[in-house]
């Protein structure tokens, strides 16, 4: 069992773990999904109740949805950094 | 036993395929580090990236358009006759109204700044359709835009809000000051990361799609481009400008006072 672990290439191990980490980071997308759905649903309700205020409701809804999206984007950025610009591999040589 | 060995082999070939696709996508300019066009420009030591080049192209196009409009401005009449004048007046008026309705009529002169930002981000996002790498898919560009908004927020806050601006840091309680400072610093970060993440995410998905076999690349990329480049690009441009306006409007006093 010990030999097996010793035979793992450290770079490959870090890359594999980073890929798992990237996958976990994108779970952050659940929150914005719920938030944006909520914003869109409430926006549709508001337009149904007051169709003449469509423009204002639309821009307010987009603003709210954009703010709700932020945390998901943070997760995405971390996943992208882990996949394409991994800072952990560079630490191996030191 | 044989089955499991076969399965492992199958899986390893599958993962090899995916790794190849990802590394190809990374090589085709999607890698956020490795997109340097020329590491030493004409021996001057400047590093030229695709972002720099594409930003210059966009700036060139915009400056050319502005010069053309300026030359034609001399021929403009009080009552528009040409379609060109109508078009220019319509977009300028639309922007002034947009800013005026969000920040108050008194501050509609911000339309000058936001129109430039709007057009720059819009063209940056849409340039992906022509096969260029979008400059907004680089954190340097979006961080610049985010920090110019940050500067405007606090500059306008200090010269217009005066005492109220500084009082705002001690609300709701005086010891809430560190939290207020952190939330002010988070504003440009979230602004720039939102734009960057959306555009880069879209371009990575497009790059991965283009590494697929040829028979799935008929027609489907067009739909994906419409969603990721046109729809997301326009929406993110709108959101960036809109959020910048509401952040600035938060710091300046209402015109009713």
Question: What would you note in describing this structure?
Answer:
Helix content of chain A is 77%, strand content 0%. Chain A is mostly helical and 94 residues long. In chain A, helix 2 runs antiparallel to helix 4 (54-84) and helix 3 packs antiparallel against helix 4 (54-84). Chain A is rod-shaped, with a radius of gyration of 21 Å. Chain B is mainly alpha-helical and 257 residues long. Chain B starts with a helix and ends in a 6-residue tail after the last helix. Chain B has helices at residues 2-30, 50-73, 83-103, 111-126, 139-161, 163-167, 177-210, 220-251; strands at residues 36-38, 48-49. Chain A binds chain B through residues 59, 62-63, 66-67, 69-70, 73-74, 76-77, 80-81, 83-85, and chain B through 22, 26, 30-33, 190, 193-194, 196-198, 200-201, 204, 235, 238-239, 242-243, 246.
In short:
The complex is a heterodimer of chains A (94) and B (257). Chain A is mainly alpha-helical.
CATH homologous superfamily (4th level) name of the domain at 29-85 in chain A:
F1F0 ATP synthase subunit C
pLDDT averaged over residues of chain A: 87
Report the helical percentage of chain B: over 70%
According to DSSP, the number of beta strands of chain B is 2
Spatial gap, N to C terminus of chain B: 81 Å
Return the CATH topology of the domain at 29-85 in chain A: F1FO ATP Synthase
Q: Nearest-angstrom radius of gyration of chain B? A: 24 Å
Find the count of extended strands of chain A (DSSP E, 2+ residues). 0
Largest interface: A-B, 16 and 21 residues
Please give the alpha-carbon distance between the first and last residues of chain A.
27 Å
User: Which secondary-structure class do the elements of chain A indicate?
Assistant: mainly alpha
Main beta-sheet strand count, sense and barrel state of chain A: none
The number of helices of chain B is: 8
Give, in spatial order, the strands making up the sheet with the most strands of chain B. 1-2
Report the top-level CATH class of the domain at 29-85 in chain A: Mainly Alpha
What is the H/E string of chain B?
HEEHHHHHHH
The low-confidence runs of chain B, each spanning 5 or more residues with pLDDT under 50, are 28-34
User: Could you give the order of the helices and strands of chain A?
Assistant: HHHH
What is Rg of chain A?
21 Å
Instruction: Estimate nothing, just give the exact number of structural domains of chain B.
Output: 1
Q: What is the makeup of the main sheet of chain B? A: 2 strands, antiparallel
